[in-house]
Amino acid sequence: MSVVLPGAALEATQSKSAPRKLGPGLRALPDGPVIVVKAGKLHTTNNGVPFVASSQKRYVPASQDSVIAQVTARFAEGYRVDLGGALTGSLGALAFFNVNRKNKPNLVVGSLVYARVVTGGSVMEPEIECMNAEGKAGGFGELKGGYLMKGLSTGLCRRLLAPNNVVLEMLGAQLSFELAVGLNGRVWVNAEDTKTILLVRDCILQTETMVEHETRSHIRALL
Fold first, then answer.
1. How do residues 81-95 score in pLDDT, each as one tens digit?
2. Where is the K Homology domain (predicted)?
3. CA distances from 12 to 22, 27, 187 (A)
């Protein structure tokens, strides 16, 4: 992991597998190198796809991002959804796992869904669907009840999605709750009681700028 700045070209060892597929913050020039277009830390997914992680409030949809969207309008063929970005997105009525025209979900305005971005960009209307790239459920679908946290930094959300995240590891060992993290700066949490929901919310928000040992001490005090 290294810090990169806009305009920098990735080294051959970093970009040799990138021209085929790139994550947010990177762009492949025609017959040229892979260029950094956003400042941040360079990471690689488990599938070997490089991307630049940065902390920002404004969300720009990127293909394969997991997001939490809110229905703003419904039509016969699907829904309009808000992702917290500059453009509204679309969700097809059949873009769910194991549904057909007879058993499709009946979402209403205000409903929340955990979804995957299929197409997106700064000037392209994002399209989302509630299943993974293999067409399976993959944890995606309608989010019922619970509490929605909005306006979080994209950096915080990426850290929450990272394996062995300290905050979620400690909370999961002591509390029973459901959590969905969207890279669009939204986190949904649900539990049997309001006290647990608020405790999870406070732990996530209050430890954003703390280093690991501070985070552990703070969460122990709250628990």
1. 999 988 899 999 999
2. 146-194
3. 14, 15, 36
CA–CA gap between residue 166 and residue 170 (Å, rounded)? 6
Q: Are strands 127-130 and 89-96 parallel, antiparallel or unpaired?
A: parallel
Tokens of 87: 């453009």
Chain segment 111-139, per-residue pLDDT in tens: 999 999 998 877 789 999 999 989 899 99
Residue whose C-alpha is closest to residue 63's, from 109, 110, 22, 19: 22
Domains, the chain, with CATH or none: 3-53 (2.40.50), 65-143 (2.40.50.140), 147-222 (3.30.1370.10)
Q: 10 Å Cβ neighbour count for 205? A: 12
